[in-house]
Amino acid sequence: MSAAMLYALTLAPAGFGQAAAAVPPAQGVVIDQVVAVVNGDLVLESDVDEERRFQAFQPFRDQTQAYSRDKTVERLVDRTLILQQEKLQPQPPITDAEVNEQLATLRKDIPACKEYKCETDAGWDKFVVDQGFVLSELTDRWRERMEVLRFIEQRFKMGIRVSPAEIKDYYDKTLLPEYARRKATPPKLATISDRIQEILLQQQVGALLEDWLKSLKAQGSVRMTTPGEVTP
Fold first, then answer.
1. pLDDT per residue as tens digits for the range 138-160
2. pTM of model > 0.85
3. How far, in Å, CA of 6 to CA of 8, rounded?
4. What beta strand segments (E) does the chain contain?
5. pLDDT tens digits for range 61-70
């Protein structure tokens, strides 16, 4: 699991993985569709759509990769498994102040926000609404993102060590060739070693997380549904 995939895994909207309230649909009208059942929790088609729209709040995603519905469903299944485990080990709630601090930074990082003038509350409100959300929904979703990331870091990051030799090896074999390809001047190793260390940590955490999720799927019950299938 790459660092980008690990980051993406923290960005699904809140409310997926939970059974929707029973609302009698009008005759002949499909209100929603179950796409997966994860240990009894449902992943809905509406969750998939919300995850697609939520990508607008992920400024550092790989812009060259086309949207994949199958990968989105897979991420939602993985997220459901993580949240189920997180509930077994409850942590202190993340405060509104912590969420708002990250959202304030996010407003500056999203390239499209420049057109909306997101530095103003009115511009930010309009950007959020144009992505199909309201501010309260965005706050809840971002809080959940922070909770998931905290759980992953606490479970997998402790005990992982990155040596200076590994940092230099990544600098020499990965970073320098990339700058050479772009015909750009690379930064000095001393100025970027902390960032390289974080990348290598994320790679190791991602590998551990992927193995752990495979184990959870083997131990539990994960079932994908087909279009038109009636879920019991």
1. 999 999 989 998 999 889 988 88
2. no
3. 5
4. 34-38, 41-44, 222-224
5. 666 678 899 9
